[in-house]
Amino acid sequence: MGADLGLRETPGRQAGRRRPGRPQLIRIATITVLLLFVLFGFPQLLSLYYIDTMTQVAVYSMVTLALGVLVGWVGLVSLGQVAVLAIGAWVAARLLFATTQPYPVVLLEAGLITMAAGVLIGLPALRLRGLYLALITLMFAGAITVVLATLNFPNGGHGFTGYNGSLVHIPPIRRPSVAGSDPAYFRYAVIVAILMFLLVLAHIKTKPGRAWAAIRQSEPAALAAGINTTLYKLWAFALASFITGVAGGVLAGAVHYLYSIGFPTQDSITLLAVTLMGGVYSMWGAVVAALLYQFLPALLNNWGVSADWLTILFGLGVLQVLTTAPAGLADQVPKDLARLGRLLSRRFRSPAPGKTT
Amino acid sequence: MPAWSDFEPFIVSGLALGGVYALSGVGLVVLYRATGVLNLAFGAIGAMGALIAWSLIQAGVPGWISWLACVAFGGAVTLGYGIIFGPALAKRDPLVKAVATIGLTLILYGLMDLLWTTSGGEARSLTLPSDNGGFSVGQIQVNWTQVIALAAGVVLTVGTGLFLRYTKLGTAMRAMANDREITATLGVPVRRVEAAAWLGCGVLAGIAGVLLADLVALDATTLTFLVISSLAAVLIARLRSITITFVAAIVIGLLHDLLTPITSLTNYRDMTPFVLAAAALLVMPRSQVMAQSREEA
């Protein structure tokens, strides 16, 4: 019954409060060095085009992270995550135009309001099986597209919607005072993303993570074990909506101007595809997925190749992930590289013909 | 509030739309019951079929061959997908099977965008000869396409009901909906029965594609996501009853079009399927979770 996409070990297993061992320390050190390089190396090395792209990657890594938590840890599938992102961006833009609150406060508020909206949508579907949630979120994505097309994004006008169609000089959505330039805003986005990754880490290493794992494997069994399945499913949905809402807030400042055509229904579907391809069972998968979703199109655009090829590739990727590689690229590529390495080393060590197989 | 006469034409168009949604919904339910797959690519398959039909007509091929080509394309693609990926995913959760059809949706969507680029601003349309004839009931003009759409919905719902009840293949499909393994043990060729369900679903996708391209618009995105309306009907029917699917589809189509003349709501009428489905989910009892999981265990 569990909506698990494949076989994997129970994550709660390593959740005890052990002191970090040596390999773990090395891993933390590696990640720290990598992050420092991203924060300070990237703005020096990359052109403005790719810095903007990497800001988008940082934004969408939060969205794919949130979706990855739902799909990989709880076994819920949302087909409307881009619509949730649009709500976050809308709320943040409205607050940024209406108030002079500091940016982090706006991000927090956008996250919380989006969370409330997400819970409201998820509540009826979460009582039922996973397929219903997938369907209702797909319809929700369609509905939000309709609402946005009518309501439009705030552009500095007055009233509840903050939209004024006859505005000649549209003011840009403001950025935090400490991160006005593109490289500075890139760093800002990466730091927000790191905080969101840590938030998820704090969840999956503790009680909610274990409850989610139980629900994913068998909901009736989790219920029998005394887990309030509706509460924990709702919790996961709320967490995912909160993170996506914050990402929407970061997106608003990154692009300065928001348009409703920027959040079409099909993007929600593509987003699920790249999240599955990246890998939903590790947090690296979220980064890989965001790179697939934002960096690859930017690269192809630079080369003059149509992005439609990517859509086709993502479609094939989904089918491949679901049939043969449930853990996605984040898991598959290191394994394949290790296999390749073994193959090569064997070939070099024993070059006798006929024995290489 | 607009006068009653403003609503009258939309009753007809709403019923026609509801008929096609019902036809699509029935195709989705039958496939789901027989194979456990909710085919989210239904709309994309119909859309690509309709675009192929359009290209054939542009190339000078007679209309009826082009429409048949659309239906044949729907059947072929759906059957092909079912044969390749059906067995590989047969033992997985319905959610995984549904997500896999998203892969097919994206492949078709990418292909459509690549082959029939819309960015050039080129507007396409697919018109059936039945658009020109018709009759009038009182003040309301009704064209034959609208009649065909509603009739197709009714006939296919009743026909599918009878087929499932009285034929050997239909009985096998109903048996597989209950338990695939036991059905196989009893000597039913499950793969062949599944293939039949896939083919039927694909043919319906093709028919729906032609009708919707005429009634709504010939546009890849629109047609791909019109499946949402049928999905709402299917969801209200809890993925099982074709009668409830039919009624829900008609209500969705009718309500959607009847909102058109109401100025304050007309922009939001595309939200109808979502609102109705969400409302239906709210009244659905929680016991469904346990009952259905026992069924599928």
Written account of the structure:
- The complex is a heterodimer of chains A (357) and B (297).
- By secondary structure, chain A is mainly alpha-helical.
- Chain A has a domain at 11-15 and 31-260.
- Helix content of chain A is 71%, strand content 0%.
- Chain A is built from 13 helices and no strands.
- Chain A has helices at 22-45, 48-74, 81-98, 103-126, 130-151, 182-204, 207-217, 219-224, 229-255, 265-278, 283-303, 308-323, 329-349.
- A two-stranded antiparallel sheet of chain B has the order 1-2.
- Chain B has one domain: ABC transporter involved in vitamin B12 uptake, BtuC (Orthogonal Bundle), CATH 1.10.3470.
- The longest helix of chain B is centred in the first third of the chain and has 32 residues, at 4-35.
- In chain B, helix 5 (144-166) packs across helix 6 and helix 6 (168-178) crosses helix 8 (190-215).
- The model of chain B is unreliable at 289-297 (pLDDT under 50).
- The radius of gyration of chain B is 19 Å and the shape is globular.
- Chain B is 74% helix and 3% strand.
- Chain B is mainly alpha-helical.
- Chain B contains 13 helices and two strands.
Topology:
The complex is a heterodimer of chains A (357) and B (297).
Chain A: H1 22-45, H2 48-74, H3 81-98, H4 103-126, H5 130-151, H6 182-204, H7 207-217, H8 219-224, H9 229-255, H10 265-278, H11 283-303, H12 308-323, H13 329-349
Helix pairs in contact in A: 1-6, 2-6, 2-9, 2-10, 2-11, 3-4, 3-5, 3-9, 4-5, 4-9, 6-9, 7-9, 10-11, 10-12
Chain B: H1 4-35, H2 42-58, H3 63-89, H4 94-115, E1 134-137, E2 140-143, H5 144-166, H6 168-178, H7 180-185, H8 190-215, H9 220-225, H10 227-236, H11 242-258, H12 272-283, H13 287-296
Antiparallel strand pairs in B: 1-2
Helix pairs in contact in B: 1-5, 1-6, 1-8, 1-10, 1-11, 2-3, 2-4, 2-8, 3-8, 5-6, 6-8, 10-11, 10-12
